[in-house]
Amino acid sequence: MSARYQLSGTTAVEISAGIESGIRTGALSPGAALPPVRALAADLGVSPATVARAYQELRQRGLLVTAGRLGTRVRPRPPVAARRSALRPPPLPGARDLSRGEPDRRLLPPLGPHLAALAADTGPSVSYSDAGVLPELAEVARARLDADGVPAGELTITGGALDGIERLLGAHLRPGDAVAVEDPGWANLLDLVAALGLRPIGVPVDDEGPMVAGVAAALAAGARALVVTSRAQNPTGSAVSAERAEALRALLAGRRDLLLIEDDHAAELARVPLHPLAGATASWAFLRSVSKPFGPDLRLAVLVGDETTVARVAGRTRVGAGWVSTVLQRLVLALWSDPAVDELVRRAAQSYEQRRDGLLTALAEHGLRAHGRSGINVWLPVPDETSAVTALRDAGWAVAPGALYRIAAAPAVRVTVSSLHADDLAPLAAALAHAANPTPPPGFPT
């Protein structure tokens, strides 16, 4: 904890408010250690139970995490808006930023022509009573899902994949319930689970998706929901294979006490077949967003599932945000209906595959086995994340430390390939190889 920031308060509410203020202003940075309960209680002249309640409240809200011998710390990305000065510092000047996990803007379809066409064809404003899912969008979405073997009877729209997952978890679970999540897995999802006061149970992942034994262990430990990434898993690039899907469906068959959530965020960008689990359990949902193929600013996802689950999500939306903008829905429908856009997305998917496979091949030439079966990221195991990230920074490359994505998985770094060029692959692979296997200083044993 920063020596300049002194915690204060005589009640649990005051202590937790002070800690939250420190996180918001940046005085308590992500990962900062907080004093042990008894030490802080002695400093403030309060009982240890008072400090313990303050810490517990912040843990339940996802601001703090208890990490064994490392004590209580600020989460890497706590769910509270921070001042701009507290945001992640930019890479060093001249460095290549491969840490963001974003698509290549140059490969996104242009929105201008379709927005202009919508503007020219705009009719009367939609009324509150008429707003909702556009029937024509639902029809096209069902056809696209049916083509991939996803049963698409009940359907609604959410403001992106994470918004849909949050609504699903909120509709089925309560704080303290356990959620089985991939480990390593999507950092945003891990943060969301913490913010909702849910308990994550990590499920090991290999190149074919969540491992069956890990899912079985999570179920035995009381998981009430399971979140699976169908393809282009972030950060490892895994994709559920036909064999893994069959085994998982057999394990999950008929369960009435488990909510199954599938996230197909990459959608058209994934150049591997989809093997859905949809319908394996009584309560299930399948989400497909449009942000990765068509642009991060398009916050829309199609959600299909069993009747009760979809009705809960749609009903909760009606008493909150109301609906996803029909202007956005019409824009997405126009993009889906344009053969030229289909071709642009197909070429983007092929380009990402070439960059990803090229980096995997270059790493293999250095004797390194990385992971990246699909998507825009490569996951490289390393002995020590801090030294690897530092070595790469010094070499002019910014990558994401694996700690953002891990619960109990082994250390690694995540490399986003979307901005790479062919002539980047060899020098990047050499830098990654050096970072993963650094040369010890003279005089140190090897």
Number of helices: 15
C-alpha Rg, in Å?
A: 23 Å
Distance between the termini: 35 Å
Largest sheet, if any? 8 strands, mixed
Strands, count = 15
Q: Could you characterize the architecture of this molecule?
A:
The chain is α/β, with parallel strands linked by helices and 446 residues long. It is built from 15 helices and 15 strands. The strands form four sheets. It has an eight-stranded mixed β-sheet, with helices on both faces. Strands 12-15-14 form a three-stranded antiparallel β-sheet, with helices on one face. A two-stranded antiparallel sheet has the order 1-2. α9 (242-252) links the parallel β8 (223-229) and β9. The radius of gyration is 23 Å and the shape is globular. The protein starts with 11 loop residues before the first helix and ends in a 10-residue tail after the last helix.
